[in-house]
Amino acid sequence: MPGLAFMIFGALLAAFAAGVLEDYRAKRILMGVTLFGYAAAWLSLVWGSSPTGQSLTAGGWPRHLGIELVVDAPFLAVTGLFAAILAASWAADQDGLLLKGKRSSLFLAILAGLTVWAANRDIFTTFVAVELTGASAYSLVARPGHLASYRAAFRYLIFGSVGGLIMLLGIGSLYYQSGYLNIVHLGLAGAGGLGLALVAAGLLTKSALVPFHTWLPEAHSHAPATISAILSGALLPMGIFTLARLVQNGISLASGRLDLLLVGIGALTVLTGHAWAGRQTETKRLLAYSSVAHMGYILCGVGCQTPAGLSAALLHLVVHGFSKACAFLSVGQLNLGGPRPTGRPGAGHHQPVAGAAFTYAVANLIGLPLTPGFLTKYLLTRTLVERGWLVPAIVLQVGTVLAFLYYWPLVRYLWSPNKSITSWACPPGGPWLAAGLALASLWLPRLFSVLIASIP
Amino acid sequence: MDVLSLGPWVGLALFLIGLYGLLTSREMTRIVMNLTVAESGVIFALVARAGSGGQGAPIVGNAAGSMVAPLPHALVLTAIVIGASLTALGLSLAQGTHELERNAGSGEEQ
Amino acid sequence: MMRSFPLLLIAALGLLLVFALGDSLLTGTEIGPVAQHYLDNGVAETGVYNLVTAVLLDYRALDTLLESAVIFAAAAAVWSLMQQRRLPDAEGGLSVAVRTLIPRLLPLLLVYSVHLALFGHLTPGGGFQGGVVLSVVSVLLIAAFGTGYEYRLISPNTKSRLELLGGGILVVIALAPLVVGAALLTNGGAGFPLGQPGSLFSGGTIPVLSLAIFVKVAAAFSLILYSLLKKGS
């Protein structure tokens, strides 16, 4: 699989090379070429992929001695997502914020780090990849001369580092329980217990699950829109991605119900994220809290610990990644970023493409029928119901209603024909529409069940 | 009793002390320093557990008797380097924030 | 109550951690199967005496490459954050005593750092340790003669190029085994000569990786230190 090596080391080498470049145009071209090469290598892997996945160990060792890298369907799904989001951010970076200083190196280092994060099956390499993406991401949040963004970046760094330390303690526990670092071997050796709980706490801090979410709204709302897109769409869900890999390989708590714990945290996060998103007066903060809520959805799927739940979680991860990145980028484009009343009503008419992109992204994030977001939320709900967990399933539906309530005024404002409108109040029909949507989400799946049944 | 077997406990205590400092500090440089203390604790715990007293360094030809496990040492070296990098990053963010605050303060006075 | 809240929280966390780690991280001395394999077969499989180096630069070389990328990212980040600061400060420096002493210390540090990197596969040491010692030279120069002097001696641009040089060598060595169809970062298995264990030229790619990391780490850390120490505007 030379494609995987080129994805990792192509991005790394480009990051090193971008460090010596001064000229903005040269940096921009280098980033573009790297992303293009990354996408080409990705396509070559998709072309030659097998349903069971392919494995290689760096250094050619048996997998428990070296570091195992795996190309399988989840890897291809998330790396495709990374390539698309980073390419979109690169293209949307009109004011050159990604090119100032050595930020282009950091951008490319994130790509390399995320790729290793998605590919490896070694618990310690995961830690190193987590810290590589972290070290690159923390300072990208800080905008030159912008005090609040520096404070947000610092907070992000502290939370991220403490999460990393707790994860490292957990890794130490797992290693000394079994003597292995490879995830498959850890599972076979029966490692887990509270060591897993520590690793999970670290990973969930990185993914901003309640109660470890408090760093996220600051970081994602003060960062430049292009960075917020990468952080929310690509970086954020990777903690849960690794947790899913651990759970999949049979690493579990010695006693107690891991599944219930994860689904509980997930459902709590869904409610908290949506509730806080609805109280925000700034579009980017609203989107940031919505990211918190969506991490809850993904964790609910992982918590089911069934193949259907894991694949639903993965699908939701991808759909959320695309939609949230799209939403952040179009918010930057539409200048909706400021406090609501100062935003420009009817901006959608002036920039119809960005307006349409934002609207479609929001439709996905709410989970309106006929969108991919609806499908993934339905699959998640179905898995929860199949496991007999009705309360979290209902929480997911309540979340949909809440999301509709807070996104609707935004979209209405965006397309408002009357430019004198400065109020962001929910329109009188809003609650009724939301109730209708909730009803629809109950019976529409039956209608599409034939179609959905063909999806694993 | 082997003194080295106390190592992981000492490391855990350092980690907790660092966390306590993190929770109670307001000043950014202090926060970064407390983070460093907590990190040293984790690293100390990991590496102290790798062997017991009387064992030699994992270098062939150096030690006559048994050697400590080399893998934790390699992991810990990686973790130390990562920690140092993050400390530098935290300090520069603290310094940047401080300078911006000072500029904002002097701007208000004028 | 509010004042003792952090203490209570930490106490609770401490109890939880003792409970969680009591039978794994906190007690016991057994060596796991992987580490035992390294102890038993490390020299035969990698050709180096220092088994920590064998793990770092052969068995788990990918970790080490990523780790050098972390330092690189931190250096790039610190540089970007401190960029709006004014460039070199001509003044600075300490007393005559320091200015006389430090130039005499520098050759010692240089030799020591190169030794650490060059003999890292035989004796305690390695590219990282050597690189950090070398970057201390930067600090001493800045302390004695000010940032301006250090800037003229070896500019941040040169350091960035050195980082690229070290990183480039790492990436080339990582990808070279693909030519013969081996997995990335393969050492002995891809035909690199492991040599006679214990001699300077042993361990295949390990000494080369070590030197590349030495250059890269030294450049990155001195870039970080320079960015942090230069005068604010």
Largest sheet of chain A: 2 strands, antiparallel
Estimate the global geometry of chain A from the Cα principal axes: globular
State the end-to-end distance of chain A. 27 Å
**Biggest interface and which pair forms it?**
A-C, 64 and 60 residues
What does the oligomeric state look like here? heterotrimer
Low-confidence stretches of chain C: none
Mean pLDDT across the residues of chain C is 86
- Structural category of chain C is mainly alpha
How would you describe this structure in keywords?
heterotrimer, A: 456 residues, mainly alpha, 19 helices, 2% strand, globular, disordered C terminus, C: mainly alpha, 9 helices, 66% helix
Can you offer a commentary on this structure?
The complex is a heterotrimer of chains A (456), B (110) and C (233). Helix content of chain A is 72%, strand content 2%. Chain A contains 19 helices and two strands. Chain A has helices spanning 2-18, 24-47, 73-92, 103-119, 123-141, 147-178, 183-188, 194-206, 216-222, 225-235, 238-248, 258-277, 283-303, 307-334, 347-350, 352-366, 372-386, 390-414, 430-453; strands at residues 54-58, 67-71. Chain A is globular. Helix content of chain B is 72%, strand content 0%. Chain B has helices spanning 7-24, 28-48, 70-109. In chain B, α1 (7-24) runs antiparallel to α2 (28-48) and α2 packs antiparallel against α3. With 233 residues, chain C is mainly alpha-helical. The model of chain C has no long low-confidence stretch (mean pLDDT 86). The longest helix of chain C is centred in the last third of the chain and has 24 residues, at 206-229. Chain C has helices at 5-21, 33-46, 51-59, 61-81, 96-118, 127-145, 147-153, 156-175, 206-229. Chains in contact: A-B, A-C, B-C.
